[in-house]
User: Fold Kinesin-like protein from Juglans regia.
Amino acid sequence: MATSGGGSYRNGTHRSSLKVDRPLSMNSNPKTSVKSKPLSSSGPRRSSTGSIGAATGAAKDDAGVPGRVRVAVRLRPRNAEESVADADFADCVELQPELKRLKLRKNNWDSDTYEFDEVLTEFASQKRVYEVVAKPVVESVLDGYNGTIMAYGQTGTGKTYTLGRLGEEDTAARGIMVRAMEDILADVSLETDTVSVSYLQLYMETIQDLLDPANDNIPIVEDPKTGDVSLPGANLVEIRDQKSFVELLRLGEAHRFAANTKLNTESSRSHAILMVHVKRSVKGKHSALSSENGNNPHMKTLKPAIVRKGKLVVVDLAGSERIDKSGSEGHTLEEAKSINLSLSALGKCINALAENSVHVPVRDSKLTRLLRDSFGGTARTSLVITIGPSPRHRGETASTIMFGQRAMKVENMLKLKEEFDYKSLSRRLDIQLDKLIAEHERQQKAFENEIERITTEAQNRISEVERNYEDALESSKISAIEEVSELKKLLQKESLLRKAAEEEVNSLKSQLAQWKRSEASGNSEIIKLRKMLEDEARQKEKLEGEIAILHSQLLQISFEADETRRRLDRGGSGKVPGDLDSLFSQVKLQQQEPGNGEKASIAKLFEQVGLQKILSLLESEDADLRIHAVKVVANLAAEETNQEKIVEAGGLTSLLMLLRSSENETIHRVAAGAIANLAMNETNQELIMGQGGIGLLSITAANAEDPQTLRMVAGAIANLCGNDKLQMKLRGEGGIKALLGMVRCRHPDVLAQVARGIANFAKCESRASMQGTKTERSLLIEDGALPWIVQNANNEASPIRRHIELALCHLAQHEANAKDMISGGALWELVRISRDCSREDIRTLAHRTLTSSPAFQAEIRRL
Ligand code: ADP
Ligand code: MG
Assistant:
């Protein structure tokens, strides 16, 4: 079925990622990439053109450098509360940092995959986060561009942790703001350059100065010519060292806390905005402005001072969770709307930019006006979206991910901001001219004196040299002979040394050749693997194409069957009615669009053809038609909203019938998958059991060869195992035996489902024993599951191991199981889990269970 396998791409994410130009990667090594590389291969300096006038930033025709908004996703580790509350559940996301991919889980079988520019796991250090998210932006600010760094995500997922940590108690914890200022101060020269900072809060469409909280209604001013945004009303503090900057951040943070207490809100409702203005003077030859005049010798000697202005904006956005309850936190509905206005306006602008709309509603809120040159504007922008692992917040996490995906499609146009500083140039030239005149006068006088002195000295020298020459001629004859013999000895020694060196070089050469040979063989291996990967991708594409064609064939056949039936009903009288004909072509058209098209066409089929009709095709004479029909039903059953309708219309009964009557493996696999999806609901679980589902699933399990069929059957039984009321019946009808029988197939996906079923069953039993309704030993042990459990307790596949570890802990909680567990070797697995398990919650559970069982304690003491 279409939802199986978990690797489906949605929303065209992989298509958009293909556009990514790899050299633009955020991950490029900051040391080697120095400034130009993260931007583009041509670099900012060379690509800036234009005359002096055009490059002041005022000119509209200034050629910029395009750059996409870079988006990284960061996962917060489980916190203490989640470790306890979600102990039995997997995280709602799975990260594949090496593929830059994130999988968002839908259920036990299925997940959606998304690509980002960077995927930061819960172990990512603050230093790495700074280097991939912020460093390229900071470097381009130092080069004279505007740059923006934003954090977006639900409250509590780590926006402030990522951007605003001061890290005074632990330097490794320093956030992006502190590290950015360190890099800026290290790069500028405080004699010629200035760095100044404003720190603001935006709440309910009002901008407040965090450095002077009394100043709480600051207007935004836009230069109509350049489009530059500024806040002349805000305090601008010049920064000369790191310590005073940290002090300033701390002050702002304290004011933010006080202001929010006064406004009766939490800081998660407001946006915090740090603006850093860097103004540097650039030596003539480095500037993009002067390169135009590089051939003019006059301009060269003048070396005009050029001022480069870059602005870095760091935005800690308000929490992205919805607040729709009016009156919460003591606000009226109107206030609640205003609280969210800026954030929702930001979302709308990003949607418009991602879709290349003509109109981008930047004027709708203060935040979007402030950031108008950050998104789709003239700045380099990095966005980090923060998410938590808890499955309880899956909805918020999904919407954060979609926000990041849309932002990845936004293109920016970078502009260099530099201009000539004419005033200081003229001042400098005046001073220089005066100095030169004075110097010239001094040198002229000194020159004349010197000439006189040299003339007399030369005459004295000449007569002395004449005298000395005659004496020396005599003595030099003797010493020359001695010197020659000494030089000969030296020459001999040198030639010996040279020979030794040549041998050394030869041996190094042969080593080098050997090394090159081994490198070449490694390269060819890589090329081979790469080619295999490409072949796999092509194969996958082809299969997807075939699936689409098969679906359209199914539709066609179902309509043809319909038509035939109608014709027969009407006595074979005529043509296909017009409305059916047009519906068919409409659905077929949608089918050709990739991605959502398939789902939409199935939904349409569902709506217009009718569930009854689809279900009736399950009993069709035609085997192909039956396969198509069961696939359509399975697809529908994957959506929770359809499940009740399917069961009501008798779909569950039909699916179970198919297991019984069909011999076809594909039908078994797809039907079992559909039953597994339906079995996630408690009412359906009872229905499945009531209709002999366990017996049918057991027979299917016994006959199946295909691991995917076994995975679906095991998944269905595993779901049934989690129902407290059905334990006895499930076991009585051979459910546990069937589960254990499937381990003959060693496929890890099948084993993971078997392990999940066992863990679910053991959990229900341990609940029953705690409530006192169960006193005998576990039915799992009765049915002989223990040896397999012990064997696989340390399985290298983590989903299998995790479930078995939990199962062991649950079994151990019931004292009646202790004897079998000790004799079966399970005790030692528990001891190992309590020491080595990487999940702290499971480790603690195992340890607690061990210490509270008298039988285990006695055995441990005995040995
Ligand atoms: P937000 O600003 O998004 O509301 P915070 O930055 O205040 O979230 O983080 C919420 C809590 O989670 C804080 O206690 C913070 O220390 C912790 N936290 C967030 N991210 C991480 C991380 N990557 N590693 C460890 N703790 C984190
Ligand atoms: Mg915060």
Summary: Confidence is low (pLDDT under 50) at residues 1-63, 290-300, 572-595.
